[in-house]
Structures are given as C-alpha cells and as structure tokens.
Write a structure and sequence with these properties.
mainly beta; Beta-galactosidase, Chain A, domain 5; 5% helix; globular; binds alpha-D-galactopyranose
Length: 383
C-alpha cells in the first residue's frame, strides 16, 4: 500500500464505521496482504442480538472475486470473466443480510451437520433412536431448524503466496438439532490465481454422529434468466431414485435411457420435462463413478452464450443436482433481480441422501478420533 493512500483509506474506514446501518454492506478494508490474490473484510450487518456479521472478499488478478460472509459461511457473490474477459456474478444471493435471515432457500450456504434429507427425521446409532426436526414435509432437511447455514462462524484470513483463503470454524454442541456429540467443523474457502475456488472441509467429534457437509450455491453462469440452456456433463452413470418425498428408495439405477443421462454433454433443459415428479425439474443425487475418497472431476457445466465453463472436482461420492424447482418468482435477490423458476443450478457435493438409514450407501458416521474431510473445487474458464 502506498503511504499517500492511507488518509483516504482511514477516511473511508471511518465513514464505513459511522455510516453503516444494520444491513448495509460497507467499504472493504485494506488488503490483508499485497500479492496477486488479496483478502479484505467489511461489515455485513448485525443479527437482532447485535452480533456483527463480516464479509470477506477474495480477489485475484485474473478477474475473479469471491465474497463470503460469516453467517452460514455463505458464498454471496462470485465474479467470473466471460469469453470477453467481462466479469459477471454467477451465484444467486442477496445484497444485504436481511435477505439471508428472512427468505434464503440456502443460497450459497454451508449446509450441515447433515446436508440433504433424513427420512421422517429419525435414525438409530449404537442402539439409540434420535429424533430430529421434520422441516421438509415428513422429513428432515439440511441440518434442521437451525443448521450450519443459519449460525455465525468464526473466521480468519489465511495467507499463502499465490492464493487467498478464509478459514471458517464452528462448534456444534452435543444435542444441537437433536444430534449426539460436539462437532468441531472448519471450511476453508481458497481463491487461487488460476481461477479456482476451492472448499476444504474438516470435522471431528467427541461421540459417534452423522456428518455430511455440503455447499448450496445456486449457479447461473449466464448471470440471469433460466438455466435450461446450460450444458452439463457429469461423470455419473447411476443415480439414486426417490419416493415422492425425495427419499431414496435404496436403489442405484442406471442413468442410461433416462432423463438423468448426462454422460455426454447435454442441455439441462433437453429432457427436463420428462423427469418424474412435481414441480418439474431435477432434484436427484447422482452416484459419481469415482466412488469418492479421492479428488476427481465430477462434472463440467458450460453456458454457450457467455462461454463460461465450470469444472467441479470433489472427493465426495455423490452430487445432488437441483434445478431451482422451488424458485417461483417470489424471491427478489441481488440488484433487485427476481429469480425465476429454473433460475439456477445447485450442485451439492455430498454423501447420498438419507445415508444414515440406508445400509447400502457409504456411511456418514464420524467416530471420535476420526476426521471428516472433503475437498470440492470449482475451476472456471471461458471460451
Ligand atoms: C436441496 C433439496 C431441494 C430443495 C433445496 C432447497 O437441493 O434437494 O429439494 O429443498 O435444497 O430449496
């Protein structure tokens, strides 16, 4: 930083402190470090009890900016260059904290302790039956009434030579949302200078408990409108069919000959009308060929209009592919944009839904002494 910039920054900082109402995103702080990728912080409003929420901004020198807030360790903004180098925001969200508090369908959030559904909100572990909230019809969904998406995470910037990162940490107490054991969880968001956004998760526990973490970003690589023209290739030749409450039947069925077949690059809208269930669209878990456990390419999503392309790599065995079927034009997001039906794609790297009740699915039980880990990364290019 040049010295002559200091008075300007100090004034800006003072204005930010003085002028910041409870929900306004304010001026970013100076860079935490000098380098190709930088981290800044700014206030992002307060909870009703006064708890301050902070926004971290990661920026690289190739046109990418990622913004993450401490409420829900939520990705609120991701600017990605198109084929002309013009950055555009490719994730749904809100301009201020109020949107996240009042009406967010998990936009950008970290979800847990158990992402996705648990049938009837019940499971047994070591001979004990646990009862959870049923917050999605008859089932438990995405961590319960106050899941990891609705808590405040501790955060600190982590520096390295060619990337910038923020580590978010949360302690989920024994009994929280009905689960046994105190779980300590971290998720590190890293932006590299070669346009990769990487999420590294880890968790430990003091009692056996299910853990299945995910990120619930709503992608729209065009930045507006619906996603039916996005082209998807996924390295999955099976999926887990569901009942009418979206609980897996336990089968792992071939995608071949069904609307679930993305083993060759296919427009998301090509067969969407043939997907069984209402509202129309995809809301299914795909079984990745990698089987999980190692970082592997899971899918490639391309938007022909802007040329933006996203590769998603993960160590998880499954992806919940959801096409915003519950977006119905009633949610107004960033910059006053109304999010339409099928206005985004959610790609949740995770273990399979209801795993804790499905012996044939890979286990999500974490034991004391063990460490849960997950790496999922998104690599952006444009052509
Ligand atoms: C997940 C679920 C969907 C829906 C969204 C949130 O993707 O699978 O059914 O609940 O979360 O709206």
């Amino acid at each position: 930083m040049h010295n002559r910039a200091l008075p300007v920054l100090l004034t800006a900082g003072l204005l930010a402190i003085v002028g910041c109402a409870s929900t306004c995103p304010c001026q970013d702080s100076p860079d935490v470090k000098e380098g190709p990728v930088t981290v800044r912080t700014s206030p992002f409003g307060n909870l009703a009890d006064g708890t301050a929420i902070t926004r971290y901004t990661l920026r690289n020198s190739h046109g990418m900016t990622a913004r993450i807030i401490t409420y829900g360790a939520t990705l609120t903004e991701l600017l990605v260059p198109d084929r002309d180098g013009k950055p555009g925001d490719v994730v749904l969200g809100f301009d201020d904290l109020g949107g996240y508090l009042d009406r967010s369908p998990y936009f950008g959030a970290t979800v847990g302790r158990v992402a996705n559904r648990i049938a009837k909100g019940r499971f047994q572990l070591d001979g004990v039956e646990y009862r959870l909230a049923t917050n999605n019809g008859p089932n438990f969904l995405h961590g319960g009434l106050k899941g990891f998406d609705k808590v405040v995470w501790q955060a600190r910037a982590v520096e390295s030579p060619d990337s910038a990162a923020v580590r978010f940490s949360y302690v989920s107490r024994d009994g929280e949302e009905g689960f046994p054991g105190t779980v300590m969880v971290n998720v590190i968001y890293t932006l590299t200078n070669d346009n990769v956004l990487r999420l590294d998760y880890s968790a430990t526990t003091d009692r056996a408990t299910p853990v299945n973490l995910s990120n619930h970003t709503y992608w729209n690589l065009r930045g507006e409108g619906d996603i039916l023209g996005h082209v998807l290739w996924m390295d999955a030749d099976r999926y887990t069919p569901v009942d009418d409450t979206l609980i897996p039947t336990g089968q792992m069925a071939p995608v071949k000959g069904t609307p679930m077949d993305f083993t060759t690059a296919t427009a998301v809208g090509a067969h969407i009308q043939d997907v069984p269930g209402k509202p129309v669209g995809y809301d299914h878990n795909f079984v990745l060929k990698s089987g999980g456990g190692k970082l592997a390419l899971a899918l490639r999503l391309t938007e022909p209009g802007t040329g933006r392309q996203m590769e998603m790599w993960t160590t998880e065995p499954g992806i919940q592919f959801y096409t915003g079927n519950f977006l119905d034009g009633t949610v107004t997001g960033k910059r006053g944009v109304v999010y339409p039906f099928h206005g985004a794609i959610v790609l949740e790297a995770q273990h399979f839904p209801d795993s804790v009740n499905q012996p044939a699915f890979p286990s999500i039980v974490l034991a004391p002494g063990g460490t849960y880990t997950q790496t999922t990364l998104y690599r952006f290019t444009a052509k």
